[in-house]
């Protein structure tokens, strides 16, 4: 589409056809991409993370590795005086069967554990890197299913690998890149099962096997990310609809059953694993509680709508009317540009100028407030905005676009709220971004459209480079800050926010840290300190324009600050027992 590969150009004298084919094989491309990502990953400080969630995963890997055990037990230094864990320093840690676990997915942990035991967090990056590489290969395969050529497939591969949110998540010990890859391959298999991909993937046997593979992919993805249940459900409906429309009712039932049975089998296997390790089916309970919250209306639709705008297209984390308008404006301009991409430059130039102004606002925001998360899917993958406009011509493209678009409102309705800002590229809807970006790549064919695609792709590459810079800055800043906290003289640190404490990763379980986010919990913390004969502690909080919290019966003896990241700082007040 936007460029040609070496096999599309005139071959230089002396270059053999075999050598040219060897250069662009998926295997070689995958190895090169993996090497690039691993090199970039070494620039990140292993003591700092993209998210507080990752801190919990790395702490668990460290506990399992150092203890040479398969049990994800973090332990709790204050268990004897706080048996219910009300002051546990890491958010979302639960006591399960006598073990203290901070687990959202077991498959990811067990895949990373052998590598972590050998080479720590730097080597364990191979697992998320593998996820990004597999997602890029899925994008390449999807291009071929949508009738694209080899150069478009290569473009999709490198765009997903190096210029999309998958790039960022491939550099963090998190499950997003792996689950994205599984869901993307699930859509590829569903296309094959529907018989929409040119050429047809074969007879009835091949198609039901493709449907079963799709179910396995979505089922395994759901063991890591709950939005995979939604994408799998919507993909299954799309598969049934496409097969029924072709007049094949029995094949529709057969393929639907194959996909459903395969998906359920993976969910059952994961539940068995969780029961064996944790004593309960953790992920199924987590998904059920989230779905129940959405159905009961316990979370306001206005809040969900705002977070949908932010994670759908937000350029910045600002939860303000201006930020929402910029996000909606970005979607409108990219959609309009996609619709008019085949027109003359005179028609498209004003739209491009409008997009450039929005990117200019992002540049100003970065210069004023520093690097920060880009929370929106379309902001981080602008080609997806073009795909929204161009994905409705032809059966295969419409099939893929329907899955991408129909899944998003269901994800927004059921996703966890309160964390829309601190995420990169809409981490709950990464699959929609990949699918729509691939649709855009395949559909931009005229010279004018190709030029527009290049410009939009360049914008996405700039955003991804900002993401890499942000990841490097965030990891180094948090690693330095928590090294300072771990080296302090106070025998106990009490954190205002267990999310912040979890950013410390292994340090949060190696040190005598507690978390007391409420006034009632601060009172409990003082009782715990009394029972342990602790005469001094430090209280850690994010610095705000408020006075230091007062602790009755204790004397404030000092206040210090630690730079965190950007303009954020931590305030540590030191308290000694009043004599």
Quick overview of this protein structure:
The protein is an alpha/beta fold.
Task: Describe the overall structure.
- This protein is an alpha/beta fold and 579 residues long.
- The protein folds into 2 domains: 6-41 and 125-476, no CATH class; 477-577, Translation Initiation Factor IF3, CATH 3.30.110.
- Helices cover 63% and strands 7% of the residues.
- The protein contains 23 helices and 7 strands.
- It has helices at 17-23, 26-41, 52-67, 106-124, 126-145, 150-162, 165-169, 176-194, 204-222, 227-245, 249-278, 282-296, 301-313, 321-339, 345-369, 377-380, 383-390, 395-414, 430-443, 447-486, 498-502, 507-510, 519-531; strands at residues 94-96, 99-101, 493-495, 513-515, 536-542, 554-563, 569-577.
- Strands 4-3-5-7-6 form a 5-stranded mixed β-sheet. Strands 1-2 form a two-stranded antiparallel sheet.
- Helix 2 runs antiparallel to helix 5, helix 8 runs antiparallel to helix 9 (204-222) and helix 9 packs parallel to helix 11 (249-278).
- The longest helix is centred in the C-terminal third of the chain and has 40 residues, at 447-486.
- The protein is globular.
- The protein starts with 16 loop residues before the first helix and ends with a strand.
- The model is unreliable at 1-23 (pLDDT under 50).
